[in-house]
Amino acid sequence: MLIVKAGGGLSISMDSVADDLAGLVNQGEQLVFVHGAAEHTNAVSEALGHPPEFVEGRNGLTSRRTDRRTLEIFLMVYCGQINKMWVEALQKRGVNAVGLSGLDGRLVRGTRKSRIRVRKGNRWVMIRDDWTGTVDHVDTRLVQLLLREGFVPVLTPPALSHDNEAINVDGDRIAAHMAVSLQADILLYLSDVAGLLRSYPDESTLISSIKPNQIDQFIDLAEGRMKRKVMGAKDALQQGVGEVVIADGRVEDPVTKALVEAHGTHIG
């Protein structure tokens, strides 16, 4: 079982990823595909006159400020445009893909952070009426049903809160939870960089291999969203996933290069 998560950067090649996934499916590989759409969402938000806002939380991570209008745009882009473009790309290649969000069938449940404390300059302030959250668990029954019948699930945020509201959650965490629940052999993150770098953005400083007991030593090297991927890798490995790979999604044959030619950062 393989879980592949493609990031939401515009430089990731949808055609190259879809070509590679189709090849694996034709060889009999069972896989679940998870995708983001962050940069597309930024562009649509700007076009609709509701520019994206990003805030820094107490954990030092930056996330999208998600008021109700932002959530509506998020749903439009993630669940609509980009999810169906991935499904279309796979269908064109003979893969019977099915697009789902975490809302569908209560696939992904999470806790809404209705109030978040964020840094504003030198101050910490409380923001209310936010629709972000954390992934608590995934229900894989629908995914397993699709896999048994020969479909390829194509998954995307948001999740469903315990009050049955849509919430913006991290797609990397969805992929990690899915990998654990399905007892995946490999969790592959495709990003817009070559992998984890010692000195970002110098790709000649790629770290090619990390042992599970070394992850904490490398987390501080991760910049931006890469930190979430490394944290997700740690959680997945601790709960039984065989290997986590963070690799370049901008290249031809990105999945094959990561899994067969050992490109990227291999953790495990």
Structure in words:
The protein is of the alpha/beta class. The protein has one domain (about 1-265): 3-Layer(aba) Sandwich (Carbamate kinase), CATH 3.40.1160.10. Helix content is about 35%, strand content about 30%. The protein contains eight helices and 14 strands. The strands form three sheets. An eight-stranded mixed β-sheet has the order 5-8-2-1-11-13-14-12, with helices on both faces. It is globular and about 50 Å long.
Beta-strand residue percentage: 25-35%
The domain count comes to 1
| CATH class division | Alpha Beta
The number of distinct β-strands equals: 14
What fraction, in percent, of the residue positions are helical?
Answer: 25-40%
